# Entry
Amino acid sequence: MTTATDGFFGIMVSWWKKGLRMGYHATTPGLLRGRVMLLNGLSIIASLSVIVFSITYALIGYQYYYGPLYILPVAVLVLWLNNRGLFGAARNSYLIGSLIVVSYWCYEGRGNGNEFTLIAIATMATLILEKKHMIVISNLLCFLIFVLFKVYDSQTPFIPDPHINYNVVPTVILLYTVGIISFQIAFFRDLAKHYDEKLTIKYNEVQAVQEELKSNNEEINSINEKLHGLTGQLEVMVKEKTLELQTYIDAIDVNLYSTISDLEGNFVQVNDQLVKASGYTREELIGKHYTLLATPAHQEANADQRRASLLAGKAWRGEVEHKSKQGELYWFDCVVVPIVYEHGRANGFLSIGLPITERKLHEQLREKTHLVLESIAFNASHKIRGPMARIKGLSYLIQKDFLNKEEYSAIAERFTVCADELSMATSELVDFVYNHQKLMNHEGSSPSTS
# Structure
């Protein structure tokens, strides 16, 4: 028997909870969820209670026993609207329907104390309405209906129903009203307790999170202090490396030619040394192709191979001949490297050149000197050794006494001719050396761009 009773009550409690949660959504604000559940609970209690009242009235023979059932359509409509999520329509339907039904109860069941249910409706309006002016209007409307009924009741003769005990029924209605009000208060008390517990749990969670955040902040502050120290060390290192790099750059700018060009070979940046050597202004060079300075021989020599090597990301080195704006030639030992950024693709080229014009001039001078020495050797071989050989041969004839006295005159003439040839060859050699020395001094005194 106990098990059957527990099962019955368990089913009733399950149905009660399901009825309360009709239209319940977790995303709905907490206060609105409470109002929805309260309105569902009032509708269910009103439906059950009016059925009990109607059965009781029918058993005692009351002629208007069906009157309480007028509230059932209103209660069912409210539950249906809440289940569809239309809380505003459900709330308004319950208020308006309740006022209409209770007003009719007051008129039809005079003397039963039905007017006391207006107090429950006023209390309910206070709990389920959101806006204050609507609460005030609802309470005033309940008060107005109560006053109008009392005026009507005092001026209209009342014929009692012999089946109704007018000492007991009004008391029951009053107790029912008090029960409804108590239910509303208890419901919101439990709801407030429920949310208070949830808020307490959330507060404790927030406190725990704050403690964790405090601990994390302390750890972060410690890390920030370490990072600050590391940042200071890094700044010092960057400053030192920047100064070192600037020293290298200054050394390059002072002693070497330096340019940066785009992929097409147009100058993007040139240093002072190249500007000075080229004779052009910086503005005249920026944006111009490097062939502006390169001699035709340099433009054609290995141009395709050099460009392919650079675009492949490889450096190129070679001796380059340039021509200044004034037409002077200057040389430098050049290294060209591609400037590579993301994805390994070259975005431009950096060229650094060591001036070698003086070395080139010395090489050219050495070649010219070599040619001069060859010319001197040739002259000495042909124009000096020939006469010397003849003189040596004539001297041999004289020493061996192979000549007659008549031939000495011819031999003397031959000596004179050889002497003249030697004198002329010597003069030509002196003039040649003098002219070459003069040419060398002229080239040596020419201004060098190195």
